[in-house]
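User: Hey, quick favor. My workstation is busy. Could you predict this chain's structure for me?
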Amino acid sequence: MLGLPDHVSACLFDLDGVLTPTAVIHNKAWTATFDEFLRARGLPGFDPVHDYNDYVDGKPREAGVRDFLSSRGISLPEGTADDPPDAQTVNGLGNRKNVLLLKLLEQGGLEPYPSSAEYLRRAKEVGLRRAVVSSSANTLQVITSTGLDQYLEARVDGVTIRERGLKGKPAPDTFLEAARELGVEPARAAVFEDALAGVAAGRAGGFFVVGVDRVGGDHAEDLRRSGADVVVPDLGQLLEERS
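Assistant: No problem, here it is.
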């Protein structure tokens, strides 16, 4: 059904890069944040391809800051969640990125991938359960502004992670929580992910994993190595395989 194995009865969708192109906006916000931070230290800037994919994509905000800085041999105090965006802490940098992200979202124009919106509509039509699983604390604003909320039954996101003390991707906690909310065993659910950390989380949780390659190059093979069962460039390809 919809290009999935017969045993699958639920779909757990990552948001950024799978349902919406917000990964582009996230990337711009991360690049601006880290470039400013690095320039002040006379260091090379943030690589929006390799650094974003390797250290930031798909992870909770603080984990992305921590992992990228570690790759440059930099450590900062953790700080607290309410640190101001100019604070020289992990949380401060993460909050700076979020301020920039919200400004970009306010500029409007964000639309879901057409084939992803159609896939969600079809999934609802045929009775597959549906949840969005994202590390972003802005998930509700994005799915509401793009109209995707009408197709989704559950949401596990950055807010949920903080409130329930879940581990972010690549740990499987968020996908397991979404499956629990839908009342579906992990073995009967499919995870849709474009990030290596998200694919690894789906594999660790015992889900069927669909890798979505919107990057090209070696990314498809990287997704497979991280645990994707199948890799497609777009969810439209799964619709074409519909039985």
